[in-house]
Amino acid sequence: MSFWRSLVGKLWITIICLVAVVLITLGIFLLPYIDSNFANSGAIKRLFTYVCMIGFSLTTFFALFLFTKITQPMQQVIEAANNIRRGEYGTRLTLVTSDEIGQLATSFNHMAEELEANIRSLNHEKAHLSSVLRSMSDAVITFGIDGQIILTNPHGQNLLEAWGALSLEEGDSELYPEVAAPIAVPPPLRPLFFSTLNQGGDQRSNVHVRKGVWSVHMAPLYSEDNIRGVVAVLRDVTEEVRLEKMRTDFVANVSHEIRTPLSMMQGYSEALLDGMASSPEESSELVQVIHDESLRMGRLVKDLLDLARMEAGHTDMAKAKVDMDELLERIYRKFSVRAKEREILLELHKSGEPLLLKEADEDKLEQVLTNLLDNAFRHTPAGKTISIHTGSTILEGRRYLEIIVRDEGVGIPPEDLPYIFERFYKADKARVRGESGGTGLGLAIVQNIVNAHHGQIFADSKLGEGTSFTLRLPVEKQ
């Protein structure tokens, strides 16, 4: 700061001007009187001049003294305050005086310490909040009352980028006129956003976006009883919804599958108890029906237990070297009798190369082939052909044994093909219900066994032409 603009400089100029005015006034009135009444007027004038010089010197000395004692400490205070304003919160004053300036310096240092501690605490809280937000698996997004984004965590940012290109559903603009405004709230969240602003309370809802389901919880942010924004917490519950649907479908399907044999067993047993059978042959027929239905229920329970163990990872696999040539010959002989009874041509086509798996469970693979062929026989009419083809293929540097089971049945609709490996899924309920042996779990068990062998299985089908299941099993140890 310039000396002339400081308080001491202005005070010094004021005193100098006052002294000058006084001396000039005295000179105007005294000099004529001195010349007329004193013989040695020159000496008196010199004395007057000396007095003026001493007066000016004294005022200058006191001005410099005040500048040293007041202005310089005040400049230090101003510089320290500017440092605090720039963010240098460690700035301290070293003034040690007992006057008011010393007290001001002490108060300033205390204030700086408290401010530094508060800023440090705020930075720690900010870092802690940032770490919590980054570590959260849920998406957290904070919107202002104008719909602009204030704060978000990485998952929320990824979600905003994924949903940024979504368009409003038809009719949203009529239900929510505010949607037309240029806001940053993704379209799936806008109805809940405006509902939270209008009602002022927490809002929860499940939002369906593309093939995913998100659980959204929105809460308003208040500032002095006024809503200043909304915070949204989003969690991906797609898997939970899918599992819940699978659970309800499983309960419904099991109930449906068990209800039919139970009803038949109950009806025929009541017929026996009421003596409706008029001959031993009729009694034997009723008992045979009850026996068949009990066997069917036993197969269903066994399949359910096997499937539950497989999906829980508790499959007992006795893996060893397996000669697939011998296994396929055994399977072929086992189904040849059934093929003759059904008037179906069963063919086995081998590639000629040795079919040897170095690590596999022979019993489980026999169950896989049995289920696939049993499924083919139940869906293939008389006069058609079921064929088994073998070969090998190399995928991603690994050699796989390939077995194809092809039938000439009615085929599977394209919309049902992705779901045939699900439990209890039947593409044609009326057609399959004609067979008493199906439980709806065969293909699900097949897929679990193949996955346990680190293999692959998929189906290809055309309506009216038939279905083929392709089974690939790794030749080498995994």
Q: First CA to last CA: what distance?
A: 82 Å
Mean of residue pLDDT values: 79
Number of strands: 12
Query: What is Rg?
Result: 48 Å
Helix content: 40-55%
As residue ranges, the low-confidence spans are 169-180, 429-437
Q: What's the story with the biggest beta sheet?
A: 5 strands, antiparallel
Characterize the overall form.
rod-shaped
**Which structural class should the secondary elements be placed in?**
alpha+beta
Q: Enumerate how many helices there are, as a single number.
A: 12
| Run of helices and strands | HHHEEHHHEEEHHEHEEHEEHHEE
**Sequence of strands across the biggest β-sheet:** 2-1-5-4-3
Beta-strand residue percentage: 15-25%
What do you see in this structure?
It is a single chain. The protein has helices at residues 7-37, 41-85, 100-135, 154-163, 172-175, 190-199, 238-273, 280-311, 324-342, 362-379, 429-433, 442-452; strands at residues 139-144, 149-152, 203-209, 212-223, 226-236, 320-323, 345-349, 356-360, 385-395, 398-407, 456-462, 466-474. Helix 2 (41-85) runs parallel beside helix 3 (100-135). The two termini are 82 Å apart. A 5-stranded antiparallel β-sheet has the order 2-1-5-4-3, with helices on both faces. The longest helix has 45 residues, at 41-85. Residues 169-180 and 429-437 have low confidence and may be disordered. It contains 12 helices and 12 strands. With 478 residues, the chain is of the alpha+beta class.
